[in-house]
Amino acid sequence: MNAGMTNHRVAVILPCYNEAAAIGDVVRDFRTALPQAVVYVYDNNSRDDTARCAREAGALVRRETRQGKGHVVRRMFADVEADIYILADGDGTYDAAIAPALVEKLVGERLDMVVGSRLTTYAGEAFRRGHRFGNDLLTGFLALCFGRTFTDILSGYRVFSRRFVKSFPALSAGFEIETELSVHALELRMPIAEVPTDYRARAAGTASKLRTFRDGFRILMMIVNLFKEERPLAFFSIIAGILALSAVGLAYPVFITFFETGLVPRFPTAILATGLMILACLSLTCGFVLDTVTHGRREMKRLAYLSIPPIDT
Predict the structure, then answer these.
(1) Domain for residue 170, yes or no?
(2) Higher confidence at residue 130 or residue 245?
């Protein structure tokens, strides 16, 4: 690593749950790659010797009792004081040796987040069946909602500036935290980058905590919820469009019959079409009102972000 970068306080933060088989090696690898860094392991109610193994390897061990990766990340971001933060998993799947290059890119280009993309070089068994497809599907959906995105929104290997960490609200509870991190950077238009990194199979004796369908659905709902929160005009315009098209489809034959006979024999259909069109107008109005509120919230978040000094090169 560039000698000038050692002036920055670097923290490696590792959320862990039952990772005794791998966490010792992970801590040692990061301490070798970044001798000046402080390694923090946050134990999330592990039932094995995760805390002891991490402590023996030289990490500072702390505990978060609320179950879920999102809770742990929120606690780490609140408690740990540093200039540069390296977030990784404690299962040995990420390559600690590339961490100095990620930090150098963050500092040298004055970025706020560097994501280690796993999709270029990974072991054949690193992704469980369907996980690569699910990752691509969710990444594509995020791009559809927000117009621009990463290639790997679910990567847990990220390097952050202090201004990113201390301006991030961290509302998620579980594995959807990576999606929230990505959207936070996109919506505030932070300078960010991706770097291809190796992704290895989990260490022997460890098991993934990710539940494919349950957590995939939660991530999908997080994207929808963030789209509603950050792009309310677009969200409610889509709903308004669906309602308006439904109303027009129902009203069309009623109008044809009225113009031909002067009668409205399907009165309930006419009432339903009218009700749907009213709901469409109300939905569009909600979108305009909430868009104004969101604009103000985004300005406040931007000001909070700008109140923290950037990284000095």
Answers:
(1) yes
(2) 245
The range of the structural domain enclosing residue 296 comes to: 232-306
Cα separation, 302 vs 183, in Å, equals 14
Q: 64-69: long-range contacts at Cβ-Cβ below 8 A with a sequence spacing of 24 or more?
A: 64/15, 66/173, 67/17, 68/44, 68/173, 68/174, 69/15, 69/44, 69/174, 69/175, 69/177, 69/209
Number of domains the chain is built from:
2
User: Which strands make up the sheet holding 158-161, listed edge to edge?
Assistant: 60-63, 38-43, 10-16, 84-87, 158-161, 113-122, 192-199
Other Cβ atoms less than 10 A from the Cβ of 60: the count is 14
Name 177's Cβ contacts closer than 8 Å, sequence gap at least 6: 69, 70, 73, 170
Chosen domain end from 193, 228, 263: 228
DSSP 84: E
Domain boundary among 208, 228, 248: 228
SS3 154: coil
Q: What is the mean pLDDT of residues 110-119?
A: 90
At residue 4 the predicted structure's pLDDT band, cuts being 50, 70 and 90, is very low
